Amino acid sequence: MDYIESKIIKNYKIENNIYKIIVEYNGEIKAGQFFMLKTVDDRFLLPRPISVNDYYCSGNNKELVFLYRVGKKGSGTDMLSNLTEGESLRLIGPAGNGFDLDKLNGNIAVIGGGIGIAPLKLFIDNLADKGKEAHVFLGFNDFVYEIDEFQNENTELYISTVDGSYGEKGFVTDLIDFDKYDTFVACGPTPMMIAIIKKCREHDKKCYVSLEKRMGCGIGACLGCSIRTTEGMKRVCKEGPVFDADILDLSSLEE
Amino acid sequence: MDKINFLGVEFDNPVLAASGTFGFGEEFAEIFDVSKLGGICSKGLTLEPKDGNDGIRIWETPSGMINSIGLQNPGVKHFVNHELAEMEKLGTKIIANLGGNSLEQYIEGVKLLNDTNVDIIELNISCPNVKSGGMAFGIKAEVAYDVVSKVKAICKKPLMVKLSPNAENIVEMALACEKAGADAISLINTVKAMAIDINKKKAVFKNVYAGLSGPCVKPIALRMVHEVCQAVDIPVCGLGGISTWEDVIEFIMAGASMVQVGTYNFVKPDVCVDIIDGIEAYMTREGIKSLDEIRGCI
Lengths: 255, 298
Prior knowledge:
- The structure holds 2 protein chains of 2 kinds.
- Chain A has 2 domains: about 1-95, Beta Barrel (Elongation Factor Tu (Ef-tu), domain 3); about 100-250, 3-Layer(aba) Sandwich (Rossmann fold).
- Chain A is built from 3 helices and 16 strands.
- Chain A has helices spanning about 75-80, 120-130, 190-200; strands at about 1-15, 20-25, 35-40, 50, 55-60, 60-70, 90-95, 110-115, 135-140, 155-160, 170, 185, 205-210, 225-230, 230-235, 240-245.
- The longest helix of chain A is centred in the last third of the chain and has 13 residues, at about 190-200.
- Chain B has a single domain (about 5-50, about 70-190, about 215-295), classed as Alpha-Beta Barrel (TIM Barrel), CATH 3.20.20.
- In chain B, helix 7 crosses helix 9 (about 270-285).
- The longest helix of chain B has 16 residues, at about 270-285.
- The interface between A and B is medium-sized, with 29 and 35 residues.
């Protein structure tokens, strides 16, 4: 695991409070892993867990991309959004297990909700690299972002917004015929995740979820992100963030 | 710097990683050479394994954080049979932190730790987050006296008692522990605190109250360490919000023999190395050979 300061190549607004920060990084990363992000000064205390959105070669270097949602003024993510090109970002990672692509079989449905789409971009690219096809369902509240990033020759894309401003009106889960697929992969807000897991259980489908929890350290020491499972307590930062939904105790996902 | 003899154990330096902020060391060993530390205090152990608390466990505050982990741990027996062997490979001193909710649990826990390679037992009578964390023992001095004296009677390891800042009277508490036979005192554990979610109109933590730590508690911790050092003759291990080498020098000047770094391990995983290097540089600059020369100078 690296603990480094990386040079910021770009940090910019995508739409409203959605930002993207691109930094230099060289190392092995699996889709679904995350980094703990922090400014190099200590203007906020705890590093923020942010999933890897993309990772690619650019000339002789590699670039690591984080897509993140900025909280209220003065929050940690707000301070991250104020960083500029040439400044440094402190990184701890890559952390967590990431997606295991070999476990995904049959017809695959990938579901992202809001900023939960962030780790799914690199994931569906990797899926396409393996020649696997997927239907991708992305749900947003009142504005969409980054949807073109999910379009490739191996995917079919479906979009919903709660206010109907783009795509189908309603929740993303309403778009999905759960009988049609064998394996589900999801990342999004907790109510969405719980709805999807319940549906998958009803329809006896395999489901993998990437979870988010408040973290202190991100490396497995503080136990702030522990959740209950049929296999005992698991740390979202270490044994997760990607879990086989079968083992999860849904009550421990809620805050 | 010269080695430090604390309770008969030789430490390379006075900086320990505080219980609950460093797991059993292995995660941090992936990031830096933890053998540079003076030692590691284990995650708080209880006789039986514990899952910890439900709901939100971590909440950031200005210059600090509140936690309600609830002593999630594998239990003393599992620690002795598994985690301890891994800790021994890390090349640093091992302090086993032990909590309990009854005298019997403390006694049984100590018996299991007695015949291991643990260097020191830190008796936690101060965890605010679970009944079994022992804070019930850490509020009233006479209750603490009872549990510490009975544990000391069967304890084969040096015994350090970790105090809560929530004690009715911190000095009386420290004196009671000293009288009961404690070999050292460590303080402070987290400060009882709370946070409210104004949108949900509910307390953030299921237990309502939880423990505040981080730089915001340091001035309080320093004052309590100073008060206790004025009162007791046994050595004191100071902790609470330490984030820099300057903080450590303050605690030493307030009378502490050793220190622990907690929350800041989350902020900068290798902060202890910066702190140790900073202390060394300060000693060289000031021409100090041993921290004894400045210890308790205030």
